[in-house]
Amino acid sequence: RRRGGGGAGGDHSGGGSAATTYISLRLKQLLVGGALRFLEQQYAGYVEQCVLDSAALAQLGGVPSAVAVVQAFVRLQISGGGGDDGGSFPPPNLLEGVLDELPLWPQLFYAVRCGNAMAALQLARAAANVVGERIVAALAFIVQREDEQQRTHERRFGDDEGDDDYILSSTTDADGIPIGALSPELRDELCDDYRHLTRSTQCDPFKLALYNALAACDPTHSDPYVMSTTQDFMWMKLRAVRHFEGSHYQHAFQQQQLSDAAGIGSSSSGIRHRTLNTADLQIAQQSSLENLQQLLVDYGADHFSGGGRSPLLYFQVLLLSLQFENAIAYLRSVDAYQVEAVHFAACLYYYGLLRQPTAAAAAVDATATVSSSGGGGYHRGSVGRAARTGGGGGSVVAPPVLDMAHLLRDYVSVFASTDPLDAVQYLLLLRDDRHDQPPSRQRCECLRDLVLDTGAYDALLGAVRHDGSRRKGVLDDYLPVEQLRAIARLAAEDVERAGNYVDATALYELSGDHDNVLMLLADELARLLTTRSAEHDTLVEYTLSVRERYVQNDYAAVSDRQRVDAFEQMLRLVDIFELYHQQRFDEALDGVRQQGIVPLTAADVDTTAATFASLPPCVRHNFAALLVATMTTLYRLHQHLKEDDAAAAAAAATTTTTA
Questions:
Q1: Which end of the chain is less crowded, N or C, counting CB atoms within 10 A of the terminal residue's CB?
Q2: Confidence grade of residue 4 (pLDDT, cut at 50, 70, 90)
């Protein structure tokens, strides 16, 4: 799947969500092939290192070639210096055939184990009279398909790696046979030979292992002389998986299952009208990827890690079996590798290989979700086993999921407050994987939380300058304007609920929601209108600075003129109450008269009563306080008039007496 693709890397049919869609057949083939190449290259490196470390015993010499290295390794195994893989070479009486004075079948097997089918073919042709034409034909088939794939790739891309669509399509040939696997006809022939070999009392263990590696004749067979390590075990199992994950078998198996369900019995459906039998079905079931995954989970971490001494081995086993969610959850549970777990998860998520839960399921599906508390919540039987949904006979097995957003939030919380820019880089990995959410919602919410937790509004989102222009923040370099505004709005709503109007209005401005800026400030002014406090003075000062920016362009950014009217009306009420508290009653009364809210004459009662319902809520909320202030103002003015009249009368009386 192309990088950045959503879901589990599969083709989502019917609009299914990433949480319930299994890895597609083509991608499964690609990943299984990649796992095999890794194991083969790893073993080839091991073989070469063993030969170099014991050059005297290996006696490499001659013209360097893959065949010479394999023969040197066999020579080393016979001498007992074959490395520390824990295995031992079988006694001579168990070995059959000789080539270049060395046991034949170990040479063939080790060549295939190193992923070098061409070297194995050269050896097989050199001893064709012993090996038999069927083994030669099988190796020639594999080499031919690999060469065809390589030539096609070179014709299309030259030395370039090529695009993902071609890589996916090139995992199989035109008949749906995975590259590296055999045709059904060749496999049947080798399986016939294998059954004949197993009837004998004694057989070369490397010969049986080679038949199994080439044709998956018996997925349950294992010989300690040959398969001595976990990597050997996984390689043989994945070879079998590759055989039966090809569409030439999958189609036939599906048709057989449909026939069985309908009670028809065996049919000759499938590619090339292949007839299925009970043995085919049984081997296919034993060799399926799902069966291998369940087997590894049943073994459990302790079986592979040696009581915790080698935790990475079980992690590798889970990766090789495509249990990516379980692998991350397990590694996360190991204290020493929690950081590595996050970065492995980031890589897998980037390539669309981690299934994500839906928003509804995220809170209840703990199948493989990393917990925010401590080690990550890996538990055998919960994370390792798929969850069942539904009831009765209609229940279906849902694949494990790993909530990447939860994982990244938990990880960056450790350093977000000190290194918010680094935290941003991690959260930007999030994509729109949840099909039941609006586009970018998940990433915006995570970045919103980062903005709120760090308080680095200006650094992350930018700021509005005094002249109304905007200074860019860090996120401007990574996100489109629409997502920046969405993050700012989400943060503003949270800050507003917390009662921080200064930060809330700044964030609303960054989100482009200027209507909410005015409404929020108007509501805050209404709340503190009648108070005399430092909070009131700070609010008024901040509100006036905001108003100054908006007045410069006549509130052009505000779409709702009623918000403007309410905002301006509240500022006039602020002026009235300021004059009232300063006992400048004449000016305060003029302000009340200009507002037209409180009737000052009998003729004004009907008009003000009719317009009361249309007043903004923030104004109506303070009507009673304004009415009391107006009455007090009138009373104080009346008192002043009486006092002035009395003073004037007293002055006149004094003048008359003097005269």
A1: C
A2: very low
User: Which two structure tokens, joined as six digits, stand for 297?
Assistant: 């989970």
> What's the burial of 436, exposed, middle or buried (CB within 10 Å: 0-12/13-18/19+)?
exposed
User: Who's near 136: CB < 8 A, 6+ residues apart?
Assistant: 121, 124, 125, 128
Distance CA 633, CA 589 (A): 7
Query: Cα(445)–Cα(441) distance, rounded to whole angstroms?
Result: 6
Each residue's pLDDT tens digit, 64-103: 899 999 999 999 999 886 665 656 788 887 888 999 999 9
CA 500 to chain centre: 33
Query: Any idea what the Cα angle at residue 441 is, between residues 378 and 359, rounded to 5°?
Result: 40
Q: Which helix (H) or strand (E) holds 389?
A: strand 387-389
- Nearest Cα neighbor of 384 from 373, 400, 369, 370 is 400
State the Cα–Cα distance between residues 335 and 317, nearest whole angstrom.
Answer: 19
> What per-residue confidence (pLDDT) applies to 9?
37
pLDDT above 60 (res 130): yes
* CA distances from residue 312 to 301, 334, 340, 373, 638 in whole angstroms, order as listed: 10, 9, 11, 22, 90
Which residues make Cβ contacts (< 8 Å) with residue 513, sequence separation at least 6?
489, 492
Six token digits for residue 216:
């998956």
Distances (CA, A) of 145 to 171, 173, 174, 243: 10, 8, 10, 14
- Closest listed residue to residue 334, CA positions, set 312, 317, 319: 312
Which residue has better confidence, 499 or 361? Answer: 499
Confidence of residue 154 (pLDDT cuts 50, 70, 90): confident
In degrees, to the nearest 5, what angle opens at C-alpha 249 toward C-alphas 245 and 252? 135
Neighbours of 228 (CB within 10 A): 15
Interatomic CA distance for residues 500 and 278, integer angstroms: 71
According to DSSP, the residues that pair with 447 across neighbouring strands are none
- C-alpha distances out from residue 52 to 42, 60, 68, 105, 374, Å: 15, 9, 13, 23, 45
Task: Give the single-character DSSP code of 463.
Answer: E
Quick: pLDDT tens for 408-440. 999 999 999 899 989 999 999 988 655 445 546
- Cα 193 from Cα 133, distance rounded (Å): 11
Q: What are 375's two structure tokens? A: 């080690």
pLDDT confidence of residue 121? 97
- Across the chain, mean pLDDT equals 81
Angle at 346 between CA 343 and CA 349, to 5 degrees: 150
Residue 366 sits at the vertex; the CA angle it makes with 360 and 368, to the nearest 5 degrees, is 115
Find the helix or strand (DSSP H, E) in which 398 lies: strand 396-398
